[in-house]
Design goal:
Largest sheet: 6 strands, parallel
Radius of gyration: 23 Å
Order of helices and strands: EHHEHHHHEEHHEHEEHEHEHEHEHEHHH
CATH superfamily of the largest domain: Glycogen Phosphorylase B
Shape: globular
Low-confidence stretches: none
Number of helices: 17
Mean pLDDT: 94
CATH class of the largest domain: Alpha Beta
Number of domains: 2
CATH topology of the largest domain: Rossmann fold
Number of strands: 12
Helix content: 40-55%
Length: 387
């Protein structure tokens, strides 16, 4: 059976949850599924690791390896005239979209799986079935953070009802989808994310010479970073040698100003990891990984922390209890009363046996998630559409 994936997620992200999910599923599909990607060249790190050419490869090898103005013009004319869109006077055509459109027109596939919500493919797909994946319903649940005419919201409303089948990444996401978009439950299959199976051995050298609480990823809106940071202040005052380490983007001006206003300069630390080993070590040596978000579609960092043997603390919200079960320390965090400080101190003062019991639960929970299992369940969806 042949499945075609498009370019959208990989053009949107050099790295990130959506493109990582599709790359892992693509790699782990069982032999009964022959999958192709509409990718000509890319800067997505997951595809680059799989051997795809870097973006610009085609241009670099066109006529000459040298870059000059006439080359840009000839490149644009050649590819636009050969593959379409000659009226588009961009210097570089959208090669991945053009490749996907060509593959759609040829029609040598049984099921199409777009990696995001752009409806361009409806012009080419004919009567072939297509599957759409919904990773979360965040824009619909938090409209105060999105424009009324947000393109993702509009496209989801249009494409989801037309899909032959829908994949959700958690029961929470499925329930929100069914409730908010009135999709029949039988049209939605839950396919969890998987855990990275690459062996991890902690480095002997610790990333820092102090104790720290770890925060991973974006810090905006529903992520509750500011609430989390405020809750950390009494902890940091009580434990003078402890800090909060954050990954993702560097602190912006507003965050730095807030940290200074709280007299916490130097107690909130930003760290960029250049390698996966550094990233996993950051988890491994943390006192705890804390996920204070109000909502997530799944929460891959939970599995990363499990793999690194890092104690996990989760806001008791959204899909977190579904994904983590009893393999986490839960707290309540929102606009009302929070018990994060109490829960953290309880975790901090666990003896070695109590800590090992928590980590043992996490290791056992991790066994539920693998990309092989996820890809097998997804392949079952494809095969059901071909009957």
């Amino acid at each position: 059976m042949k499945v075609l994936y498009d370019y959208q997620a990989f053009d949107m992200q050099t790295h990130g949850g959506v493109s990582r999910c599709f790359a892992e599923l693509y790699k782990h599909l069982p032999p009964v599924i022959h999958a192709e990607l509409g990718i000509h060249e890319t800067d997505n790190v997951y595809l680059r690791n799989m051997g795809f050419h870097s973006r610009g490869f085609t241009y670099e090898h066109f006529i000459s390896r040298r870059n000059f103005n006439l080359k840009k013009v000839l490149f644009k004319l050649y590819y636009n005239l050969k593959y379409g869109h000659p009226e588009s006077w961009d210097k570089r055509p959208d090669l991945n979209r053009l490749k996907t459109e060509r593959m759609l027109k040829i029609g040598n596939f049984d099921v199409f799986h777009p990696t995001f919500f752009d409806l361009y493919f409806l012009n080419y797909i004919g009567d072939k079935p297509f599957v759409i994946t919904v990773h979360d319903m965040i824009p619909e649940l938090f409209p105060q953070y999105y424009a009324a005419d947000d393109i993702q919201i509009r496209q989801k409303r249009q494409v989801i009802p037309l899909a032959s089948h829908i994949v959700a990444v958690s029961e929470q996401t499925k329930n929100d989808l069914v409730r908010m978009m009135h999709v029949p439950e039988e049209k939605v299959t839950v396919v969890y994310h998987g855990a990275d199976s690459t062996p991890y051995v902690p480095s002997e050298k610790r990333p820092f010479d102090y104790e720290y609480i770890l925060y991973v990823g974006e810090r905006h809106f529903y992520k509750n970073f500011l609430l989390f940071a405020q809750e950390c202040i009494p902890i940091l005052k009580r434990h003078r040698d402890m800090k909060v380490v954050c990954t993702g983007k560097p602190f912006d001006a507003n965050e730095l100003a807030w940290i200074e206003s709280q007299r916490m300069t130097g107690r909130f630390v930003y760290r960029f990891m250049e390698t996966n080993q550094e990233f996993m070590d950051l988890y491994h040596y943390a006192l705890a990984f804390v996920y204070p978000s109000s909502y997530e579609g799944f929460g891959i960092p939970i599995l990363e922390a499990y793999k690194a043997d890092c104690p996990v603390m989760l806001n008791c919200a959204s899909c977190f209890p579904e994904i983590a079960g009893d393999a986490a320390v839960y707290f309540k965090m929102g606009e009302g009363k929070s018990d994060f400080v109490e829960q953290f101190e309880t975790l901090y003062h666990l003896d070695s046996n109590g800590r090992e019991q928590l980590l043992a639960k996490q290791r056992e929970r991790l066994l539920l998630y693998s990309w092989e299992k996820s890809a097998q369940k997804l392949s079952d969806v494809y095969l059901s559409l071909a009957k």
